[in-house]
Amino acid sequence: MMCELCGAEVPRTKMVTIDGTTLSVCQNCVKFGDQKGVPLKKKTGVPPDILRRLEARKRRMTVRDVYSTAGEEVLVDDFSERIRVAREKKGWKQVELGTKINERVTIIAKLESGEMIPPDTLIKRLERALEIKLMEKVELSVAKKPAAASRPLTLGDLMKAEKE
Questions:
Q1: Which of 63-67, 119-123, 140-144 has the highest mean pLDDT?
Q2: What domains are there in the chain, each with its CATH number?
Q3: What spatial distance separates the first Cα and last Cα of the chain, rounded to whole Å?
Q4: Which of 32, 68, 101, 162 has a CB 3.0–4.6 Å from the CB of 125, allowing a cystine?
C-alpha cells in the first residue's frame, strides 16, 4: 500500500483526517492529522451565549414546510410592512421606536426593509410596543376527509381540494 501523504510504500496504512480530508497514511504521517474514529477536539473558547444565538439563527433561517408547521406560530411574511405601517400610525420615527423597545435605529431600518428577520425576543417587544401581531398560526388549507386520515396527503388530494 502507498501512503497518500508522503508516497512511501508501506505494508499497512491508517485513515486520518487532515484539514477535513480523509487520507490513508503511513505510521510516520499519522502525526499530521486526526485518526479516523477518534473524535476531533471540540473548539473551546466560544461562549455559550454565542452558541445559543447561532442555534436560534439557524432555526429562524431554515425554510419550513407548511405541513410540518401546521398549528405552530410562525412569523408573517409581510412583517416588515406591518412594522413600518404600525410605526407610522403611531406617528413615531424609527429613532423613537428604537428608544421605546431599546434597540438601535439600524436594526429598525433593517427590519422595515426586510433585510433582517427578527429574533423571537424582538418580535415580542415589537408586538407589545406597536400593538400588532407578527406571529400567526399556520393552518392547513386542505380539509382532510375521513378516508384520507389513514393515509398521507398526496398531490392528488391537493388538486381535488383546489377544484372543490
A1: 119-123
A2: 1-38 (no CATH), 67-137 (1.10.260.40)
A3: 68
A4: 101
pLDDT digits (tens, 9 = 90+) for 9-59: 888 888 888 877 888 888 888 888 887 554 444 455 778 888 888 887 887
3-state helix, strand, coil in the chain (%, to 5): 40, 10, 45
Q: Are 29 and 14 in contact (CB under 8 A)?
A: no
- Quote the cell numbers at residue 147: 378516508
Query: Residue 57's closest CA among 148, 114, 118, 5?
Result: 118
Side-chain-facing half-sphere of 119: CA atoms under 13 Å:
10
pTM for this structure? 0.47
